[in-house]
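Predict structure. Chain length: 568.
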Amino acid sequence: MGKTDLTLNAIGHCLDDDPRPIIYVGPSKNFVESRFEPRLTAMLRGTPSLWSKTVQGKKNKKCHKTVSGVDVFLGWAGSATELAGASCALALIDELDRMDGDVQGEGDPLALVEARGATFPDFKLIVTSTPLIGNVDAAPHPMTGLTHWQPAEPSDLESPTWRAWQEGTRHEWTWPCPECGVYFVPRSGLLRWPDDAATPSVVARSAWLECPHCQSPIAEHHKTRMNAAGRMVAPGQSVCADGVVGGPDPDGDTGSFWISGLCSPWTTWGRLAKAHVEAVRSGDPGRIQGVANTAFGELYRVGAAQARPADELARRLRGTYPSDSVPAGALVLVAGIDVHKSRLNYVIRAFGHRMESWLVRHGELFGETEHDAIWGDLGALLDADLGGHRIKLMLVDSGYKPGERWRTPDHKVYEFTRLHADRVRACKGHDRQSKPIQAADVDITFRGRLIKNGLKLWHLDSDYFKSWVVQRFDWPADQPGGWHVPCDATDDYFAQLTAEVRTVKASGAVVWQQLRRDNHFLDCEALATAAAQMLGTHLLKPPPEPGAPAPPVAGRPPGPIRSKYISG
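Prediction complete.
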């Protein structure tokens, strides 16, 4: 789409026409030094009015240049030092979605860069990026009929760029239909090809775009003329046949703009359609996402086909018993604890014969997990009396998880585990391992040697236990082994149970992809299931029927016991 050229043009114009300090921030050091900086140098060298104003020699560094008497800084998301230095009047962030959300523990890169302009009243921040992951829908505006992207809940958006875009004016690039002349927003859903196209190559040769108003096919050769007549339009605005935009100006001081990859002059609709078909036929979620993001400029809707509505699951699973009650068939109570920076999520579940189970309580304990107070609250939960039962085994997640920008000190989890060693185990989940449950020693001596009977860390196969939980959602009501939920379970509990979907890549690798940021109760349920299996509840014998005679006890045949330890 030419975003980098746009960025270079903005920098060059500013330096030549109205010099001011500038910072450019790329997604990585390698991107900045090997891709952007050479193009910036080529632009300066190729523009005489700029090259004559560029300081040469040792002061002309890779990531710090002086042009027209002002500084130009080049930084990247992985360096807090680069983002928290001198002030600037113009900041440009490229590929925000591909940046770490917390730069070395100092905060969001967008906030760090924005703070650089605090001393400039005319400070401007420009962000360009390909959006990556999020769940959004498109719907026609009730007044104009133009189909726009609808604002989504922040929890449904992993893409920081899209969150920033929907907080702004939400302009979208529109085209006039060559047949009916009515403007529309091009997006991937309007791309068509014959139903009987046997191969991707046939799709590439026969693809076209369909007008959403008159359903006329639009050929590729119309793209140049449609782009020339294109207009940016915000929700509530419309475009007349002569290209004049009418309607109220959008409110807010942030201009945000989206344009479809269909509008790119560097590729064809046939090539985009071919890439889409090949990705879908491959069955590889990563490949499908790559086409959605980089080819069409749209968010990848994770697991849209496999996603299960939370309200539907709630209607199916909500039972008749209340929370904090333990049904008669329960034999043991277990708990799963998911650890976060400022809270602990937990579930307490009762298990019985054939792994039939009942959710007894779920909730959150709030407090900084680096401090002792919240662990005291967890200890009180461990000792709580629930219908005459106490928790038999509690599994506590130990620290860091991929995707989170902090690390709870492992020693806090280990301290709690040592304090309640008879009923608490520290554990850590893995995407895949050879056995569902494996233990490893973690206590060491002052010489660095493992203590054989010291504290153990229990490694769990996350795919195995999450899959076990999700399969129980549709367990037949007339079969033993049911998975029950109280009548007052919260909507948030069900939303978190459905926050992830299991997908299998073409390579056979299993990936659990998040639909929403909060998936903690699903993790807790997986931990509780692991705790139940560690106790061997899947091997429990069924209780005897009332009035039935006790089964005979198998004994050793008569005769002397021969042993080197016991004689007689």
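Summary: The longest helix spans residues 29-46.
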